[in-house]
Amino acid sequence: MERGFHIYYCDFVHDSSISSAKPEFLAADRLVPLAEHLLAAEDNYLGVLDGMETILQFYLSGKDMVVELLYPEGKGMLQSKMPLDEGMKLLGSLPDEFSEELLPGATFIG
Q1: Cα(22)–Cα(110) distance, integer angstroms
Q2: CA atoms of 85 and 103, how far apart (whole Å)
Q3: pTM for the whole thing?
Q4: What letters, b where the CB count within 10 A reaches 16 and e where it falls short, cover 45-61?
Q5: Is the separation of the CB atoms in 44 and 9 below 8 Å?
Q6: What sign for the dihedral angle of Cα 24, 27, 28, 30?
Q7: What is the largest CA-CA distance in the chain?
Q8: What's the average model confidence in pLDDT over 40-53?
Q9: Where are the domains of the chain?
């Protein structure tokens, strides 16, 4: 079976979206091209779910990419800012399960 993740996004520029309530499957090798398209505008975002329904959400803030690790139980999140190329590199090498180790030095927001 092809490796991939369930994703949701909102593209305000092109008026297209996939609801977080009904995420769709996307092959892992398509994540970076999608993010490059979506994250060209600051209001857009991309959410990626692992098999345990832990979410990584990506969006831009100025020239940086903000990455948030959202816990399925709704018990807060970890937030990290990184250069855009670092965020794309992370997207291109996501493990099957997301953990705090993906975002060293991230801030917990409760």
Answers
A1: 25
A2: 15
A3: 0.94
A4: bbbbbbeeebbbbbbbe
A5: yes
A6: negative
A7: 38
A8: 94
A9: 4-109
